[in-house]
Amino acid sequence: MIAIAVLGHGTVGSGVLEVFNKNHASIIEKAGEEMEIKYILDRREFPDLPYHDKFVKDFEVILNDPDVRVVVEVMGGLDPAFDFVLRSLKAGKNVVTSNKELVAVHGAELLAAAHETNVNFLFEASVGGGIPILRPLSQCLSANRIVEIAGILNGTTNFILTKMFREGVAFEDALALAQKLGYAERNPAADVEGDDACRKVCILASLAYGRHVYPQNVHTEGITHISAEDVHYAEAWGGVIKLIGRVKKLDDGRLFAMVSPAFISRESQLATVDDVFNGIMVRGDAIGDVVFYGRGAGKLPTASAVVADVIDAVKHLAARKYIDWEPAKDGYVCDYLEVPASMFVRVTARSRTEALRSVRGLLGNVTELVCPGVENEAAFITPMLPEGEIVRALQALRALDYPILSTIRVLDY
Ligand code: HSE
Fold this sequence. Notes:
The chain is α/β, with parallel strands linked by helices. Helices cover 37% and strands 24% of the residues. The chain contains 14 helices and 18 strands.
């Protein structure tokens, strides 16, 4: 009998118990071993639950029990999750986690620890919720050189943007609903400021290219500044606004990585990814584009990926699954200002014609956008230019007394 310990009984932890108990017979059959969840670590008491006797408050009980072969960390955050996971790996226990922050910040170190004790450290649920993406990337697509990855990686922000576009719901109301449905992080700033998507970009980039990409190296913008006017302009242009995380290998071996809201055309496959769904496009040199789609957040979709990792860990107790990346050197991720971009820009202007004359003097051949009912401003899309050049031109525009109302990148996925 293989004993499992679950660290944390929040949204995901309770989902793991639910999936494990509901599908117990088929899970045991697939794993080929008898398994039981022996401990659940949580500071709180749950006397009304049928499995209330499994709760413990002291992690040492789990660490010191040799029967525990798999530790499932679904607490979130770094402290104490990092300490518990590192000590579990060093004690020769397999670890499964859904914790994006943990993997994005400490992935290389934890993988090295797993390597040393020859155990599995698996984290499929950390990207895309229930969508299989890390295994396909590291196994099924391993014959490819990964050219680029781009996707909608955060369910909460996609849910909010969908509500704003489809129903004209205010940002705060849409966020409150996402929290109620169990999509948002404990601190929803991590969703709306783009940090959660950034962590997922780090994990995808590290896995695809073999070196650790750290969150502080990824330029990240959230959706808090997206206004109803921006939404109207995107519609008039023929597209939608999505929070896109992307990573690309440059010819000189460095990586470009970014998280930001973006205009994407209605024709794009990513444009139809709505609500809590995530869509991740992987571009390989042999396969071309492949898109992974499904529920990117929520209790049971995330638990589905966690429990699948538990089954995989149990099936590979003797032969560790290959999943690895190394620490990276400084300068591995380039400065985003070097990379060409096209930008949607709105400025305050009494005369649109005069404003656009100044804009064209600074940025060349921009495309004017007009949105019915919006007055006293000019809007345009810049040509593709290194982003630093666009930033300098916008500073000059500000100096000419055209305040910038918003800037949103335009992508052609
Ligand atoms: N808060 C995250 C999201 C949960 O909304 O996508 C899944 O990682």
